[in-house]
Write a structure and sequence with these properties.
With 117 residues, this protein is mainly alpha-helical. It contains 5 helices and no strands. The longest helix is centred in the N-terminal third of the chain and has 22 residues, at 3-24.
């Protein structure tokens, strides 16, 4: 198994763990799958140009913001925010398990994981 495949398997495991946590928290599975692709709305930045597109996309696909929200939601007992953060993190893991990483401003298909053909 190549190193790249190990990395993808790690992301699949991350997605499965997020889904397990989400289910364990007794949130709606239907809502999970309805909201799972919402972070992809950040692709709208590409309507302007590659630089803005990659910046907006990367803000929506970096683990930094959803992890901060997860921390705040957990400490503050904010159920809706916790649900949102878990779905957002699951989305990022799912994307990365499929090879869609953070974008360089060179183009949508140039990511930190690979160049998508």
């Amino acid at each position: 198994m190549s190193l790249r495949n190990v990395i993808y398997v790690e992301y699949v495991i991350g997605f499965i763990i997020c889904l397990f946590i989400y289910i364990k928290l007794d949130y709606s599975i239907l809502l999970f799958f309805l909201l799972l692709l919402v972070p992809d709305l950040t692709m709208v930045g590409y309507l302007f140009n590659l630089r803005i597109g990659s910046l907006v996309y990367n803000i929506g696909h970096s683990l930094i913001i959803p992890c901060i929200l997860l921390f705040i939601a957990y400490l503050g007992g904010f159920s809706f925010l916790l649900m949102t953060a878990v779905i957002w993190i699951a989305h990022i893991y799912l994307d990365r398990s499929l090879g869609f990483g953070l974008k360089y401003s060179k183009g949508f298909k140039v990511t930190h994981l690979q160049k998508i053909d």
